[in-house]
Structure formats: C-alpha cells, structure tokens
Amino acid sequence: MNQALNGKRVAIVAADGFEEAELSSPRDALKKAGVEVHIVTPDGKGIRAWAETDWGDTYEADKALADVNESDYHALVLPGGLFNPDELRVNEDALSFVKAFFQAGKPVAAICHAPWILINAGVVDGRRLTSVPSIAQDLRNAGAEWVDEKVVVDSGFVTSRTPKDLDAFNAKLLEELQEGRHSGQHA
Q: Is 113 among the residues known to form the active site?
C-alpha cells in the first residue's frame, strides 16, 4: 500500500465489450496500491468483457454515469476494446464526464481504442499520445500528435497501445495519480 495514494478514488468507465485485461489489470494495480476503484457503466448495470477473441466475464458496476461527478474522483481510466469505446463515444454522459477531468487537470489514462472517446470529447487537439495503431489517423485528424510508444504521458494524460503495454501503463497511471492535478491540461 502506498501512503500517498491512500484515500484516492479512481473511476473506470466502461461498457459491454471492453478488453478484459485493460480493465482488470489497472483496477488490480490501483487496488493493490490502496486506491478505491469504482467501475462506472452507462446504466449502472454489469458489463461483459471481451477477452481477446471471445466474450469474457461479467463485471459488476459500482455506479451509473448519470450518478457520478468528476469531483468524486482523483483520476479516470478508460479501457479499450472495440465495442466499448464505440458505444461510449456517442454517450453524452460519458463525454461530459471525460471532459470534466481534463478541465479539472486530473489524470486520465486511456488505452487501445479508448482514445476514440477522447476525440468525441474534444480533448485530444494539441496533445501527444498513443493508441492502438488502427486509430492513429483518427487521432491525427482530431489534432493529436500520435506516436508509436509503449506509454506516453502528456501533463497527467496517460496513453498506451495494447494489453502488452499494461505494466508500463499501470506504473505511469499510479505515478500521475500520486502527482495529482496538472495545470498544463486543457479541454
């Protein structure tokens, strides 16, 4: 347990079809560090994981998007997968929630296809980040500087490419959570 992280709360926002490791691995790393973690879903109901090639386990939700506020949390985690970010990027509650973290300068960590959500939230213009390579052009078109690196940090904003990068992603997430607010962020 990390004393600096004691009392911190992190929201993991996901919908059906999230990549299982991209939720379970950061959640477990955060909990191991003494962080309180809430899984937040569009309707507050459980969600089914996608485990690389097939449907995986169902994860119970702690909260619904309509019932949460950025001020309740110290950081936000957005797992990838194909279905999950595609659903969340057209969910107004999800987009407002994401935008609020950027406006507050709080750490946001997104992996794989999750930056799709950030494009629709309007928060990637001028940011340096990475993602799964298949959405690199989408991010460039939205004004981001896309790079092919294991983990990229831009003023409290952490991104990684795929589950292979989870160790680096989790380490940077914990580091940014410990640092807290970043004044260099913009929405």
A: yes
